[in-house]
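Sorry to interrupt, but I need a hand with the structure work. Could you write out one complete protein record for me, on any chain you like? Could you add the entry underneath, on a fresh line?
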Amino acid sequence: MKKIKQFVDSVYSDVRGKEAKELKQEMHSHLVEAVEELKAEGKSEKEAISIALERFGDEKQITMGLLTIFQSQNKFAKWLSRSAIIFFLVGLVVSVSLFMKDNTYRETNDLMSHVVETLDTKGEFTAGGKKAVKDMVERNEKWFNNISYFAVIKNSDADGNKISERLFTQGVEGSGKSGLIRQGIAGKDTWYVEWEYKTYDYLKYEPFYYVFFAISGVLFILWGVVHFYNRTRLRAFA
């Protein structure tokens, strides 16, 4: 069967890859099987090999043509998988950067909630309390750098008269781009803090959290379809 091996090697001498290797094995098995069938019909091994190779002449051209198509499709599948990975990595970087940006706003809200809870617990706003709020603003410069206006407000009810006091203010109301944001706790006295951001784009780019991952997912699905199609067709004509 040395002649069959030489023939198969010559067919695939210029092609490489997993698909070519599988086709090569399939072709060799196919030819050996054909030779055995011809020998069973009374042909000598030499005659059987010659007939099998002659019959396989047309199939050789078909095989090479299809292999060329599969190689092109395989390159396309690799491009899809690489593109999917790139989009996934870009999406990961974008999502992390957006999360860090948006997380600053979340942390500011948490800080304001803590301030309100502290004020409500103390119940009074003394001169020391005013200094404590001022110190708090300075300590949390990271969050207040983007705040153009901040105020502490106490609403109370004295003899049926509602009183609203601005106990601490910093900046000018209406100077920010976010509009007025307020956090408060209602009770006997209602404490509020309100603030405005100089610039405000919280969740403005939220779709980008998902769009790169969505594109990556679609590309991975397309890669799977192309890969499965190639493998199925490869086995169909081998």
In short: The CA atoms of residues 95 and 209 lie 5 Å apart. The chain has a mean pLDDT of 81. The longest strand covers residues 147-158. The first helix runs from residue 2 to 11.
